[in-house]
């Protein structure tokens, strides 16, 4: 090993160490931003080291320069633009697209490693096996992530899409992909077999995600994120790059843990989610109660809600996807700050899958400078509801559905926020339509619940204005 190669190894080890430290920091909302910066620093070291090493190894040929600089500029511009312009409600879609890019890129690297040697004797098993696995996993991730992004964006129906014999077709395609992969390894360099693996895996990715319902789409995105990590790790083995191996393993492990946590928060197994999801997604509707008998619903005005909040001692705010969709995080933060200044104890009850992904709601509220200590996770929030004067539910539905405590429905057994344990409940929602699980919520017709039918941002602005009048009176 030359001194330059030793330096490259040390830099890869340093970048990997920063990945580990950064990932550890991301465990808590209060340190997540720091962790993200640390991980980004590790990635910068890894990318620069790889570019310099590649140019030195290739002798600095202009084609290598053009490919590396062009790729870095294209990817950098796309990444910065998407990160700066994406709405918080569209983050899951962006994550899914990034999964597709990562999986597809890893598969492309492996395919090139398989084809380029051109040795009549073929490539070694230590290379061919990770290459085949990379093409298989990366291609599934690429096509599956694009379908998932389409479902989350509404381009593809959020309903489970299936057809007669779909599972048999899935099994057949999987068998074809595995058999072609085995043949590609045995025949040592048979490009045709690897192409069959590629095509079959792309089809399998589509068929695997189409049956996923709207409620399960974020879970499958997390699973595909784990697949991306595995594909990247396999690419690292294929081209003997330690940074890729370590980074891919970390992403794969983190994605797997996140997937299991999300499935647990929805009381569903990952296998059941893959076999067929539930939920159609909450359709957009005009403001006001519609589509349901409202005889048992108590409607409120902004003034009614303001009176309850101004004279309460303990208020718990339950943010949901409706808050995120309305981009009302700044309005709810303003209302909470006003109540706190008036002597009201205000906290936020955060469900693990509030919004569309774990941590999504925490990030959204942090964007509005809500202190982290005001955000209560599931267990702490449920303990606080027993002493809560008013639970203010904003655009949340399934995560506070009391029917989860009963058997025989789509949310049975799902851990929920016990908003119905509060002395009084106020729900801000555009209509009485069901959430992603597609079932009604008895909390909305509970005698102690009042419904304010309006867009979250408009409703919160009206409530804040009314509270100011009562406070100043």
From TrEMBL:
Xref: Pfam families: PNTB
According to its UniProt record, the EC number is 7.1.1.1
List membrane-spanning regions.
Answer: 6-23, 35-56, 62-80, 92-115, 127-148, 168-186, 192-212, 219-239, 245-263
How is this protein situated with respect to the membrane? Multi-pass membrane protein
- NADP transhydrogenase beta-like domain mapped to chain residues: 10-464
Name the major location: membrane
Protein family (similarity comment): Belongs to the PNT beta subunit family.
Function, in words: The transhydrogenation between NADH and NADP is coupled to respiration and ATP hydrolysis and functions as a proton pump across the membrane.
Q: What is this protein called?
A: NAD(P) transhydrogenase subunit beta
Species, as recorded: Arthrobacter livingstonensis
């Amino acid at each position: 090993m030359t001194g330059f190669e030793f330096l490259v190894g040390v830099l890869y080890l340093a970048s990997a160490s920063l990945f580990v430290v950064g990932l550890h920091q991301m465990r808590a909302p209060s340190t997540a931003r720091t962790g993200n910066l640390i991980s980004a620093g590790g990635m910068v070291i890894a990318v620069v080291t790889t570019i310099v090493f590649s140019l030195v190894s290739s002798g600095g040929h202009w084609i290598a320069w053009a490919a590396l600089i062009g790729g870095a500029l294209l990817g950098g511009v796309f990444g910065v633009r998407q990160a700066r312009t994406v709405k918080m409600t569209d983050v899951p879609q962006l994550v899914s697209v990034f999964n597709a890019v990562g999986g597809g890129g890893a598969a492309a690297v492996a395919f090139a490693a398989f084809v380029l040697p051109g040795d009549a004797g073929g490539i070694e098993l230590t290379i061919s096996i990770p290459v085949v696995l990379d093409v298989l996993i990366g291609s599934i991730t690429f096509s599956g992530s694009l379908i998932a992004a389409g479902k989350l964006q509404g381009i593809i129906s959020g309903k489970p899409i299936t057809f007669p014999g779909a599972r048999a077709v899935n099994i057949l395609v999987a068998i074809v992909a595995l058999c072609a992969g085995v043949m590609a390894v045995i025949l040592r360099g048979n490009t045709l077999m690897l192409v069959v693996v590629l095509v079959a895996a792309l089809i399998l990715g589509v068929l695997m995600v189409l049956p996923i319902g709207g409620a399960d789409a974020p879970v499958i995105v997390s699973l595909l994120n784990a697949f991306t990590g595995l594909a990247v790790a396999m690419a690292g083995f294929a081209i003997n790059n330690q940074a890729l191996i370590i980074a891919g393993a970390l992403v794969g492990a983190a994605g797997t843990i996140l997937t299991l946590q999300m499935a647990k928060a929805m009381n569903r197994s990952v296998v059941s989610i893959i076999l067929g999801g539930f939920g159609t997604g909450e359709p957009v509707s005009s403001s006001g109660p519609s589509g349901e008998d409202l005889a048992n619903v108590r409607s409120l005005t902004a003034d009614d809600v303001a009176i309850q909040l101004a004279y309460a001692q303990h208020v718990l705010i339950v943010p949901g996807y409706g808050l995120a969709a309305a981009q009302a995080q700044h309005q709810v933060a303003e209302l909470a700050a006003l109540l706190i200044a008036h002597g009201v104890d205000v906290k936020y009850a955060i469900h693990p899958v509030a919004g569309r992904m774990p941590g999504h709601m925490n990030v959204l509220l942090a964007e509005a400078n809500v202190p982290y200590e005001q955000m209560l996770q599931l267990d702490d929030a449920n303990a606080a509801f027993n002493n809560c004067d008013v639970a203010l539910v904003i655009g949340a539905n399934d995560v506070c559905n009391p029917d989860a405590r009963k058997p025989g429905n789509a949310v049975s057994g799902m851990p929920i926020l016990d908003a119905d344990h509060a002395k009084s409940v106020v729900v801000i929602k555009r209509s009485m339509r069901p959430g992603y699980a597609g079932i009604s919520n008895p909390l909305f017709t509970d005698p102690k619940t009042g419904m304010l039918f309006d867009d979250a941002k408009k409703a919160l602005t009206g409530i804040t204005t009314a509270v100011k009048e009562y406070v100043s009176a």
